[in-house]
Design goal:
It contains one helix and no strands. It is mostly helical. It is flat and about 130 Å long. Residues 81-98 have a biased composition (Pro residues).
Length: 122
């Protein structure tokens, strides 16, 4: 435990001293204004007087297409008759009557109270 706390304190001291050194270095750098070099001049390129023309494209030879053989015709499919679809069942629109809820509670039979047997005295 003591070793880790000592290393932590050393780490914090190192960080704080590094911060102070960076502020000092920045202050030294900002005391004098650097001289900015001038930009070099860019030479201008000569502009050609005439632009060379594009070469002409070669001509594509024409190919004679041979006549195709007649295509065979597809055979006719037999016609089928489907059976008629069953009719949809009808949905009832009225709900059945709800059975009546009894208004009186049934009587609960009473259980006779049984007494424990008398204790025997020692």
């Amino acid at each position: 435990m003591a070793t880790s706390s000592k290393s932590f304190v050393l780490f914090i001291a190192l960080v704080l001293s590094t911060i102070n050194m960076t502020f000092g270095a920045r202050h030294l750098l900002q005391t004098t204004m650097p001289s900015i070099p001038s930009l070099p001049t860019i030479p201008t390129l000569p502009i050609p007087v005439t632009i060379p023309s594009m070469p002409s494209l070669p001509t594509i030879p024409t190919i004679s297409i041979p006549t195709l053989l007649p295509q065979p015709t597809l055979p006719t499919l037999p016609t089928t008759t489907l059976p008629p679809l069953p009719s949809m069942p009808t949905v009832p629109t009225a709900l059945p009557p709800v059975p009546g809820v009894p208004t009186s509670l049934p009587t609960i039979p009473s259980i006779p109270f049984l007494t424990p047997p008398p204790a025997t005295s020692p």
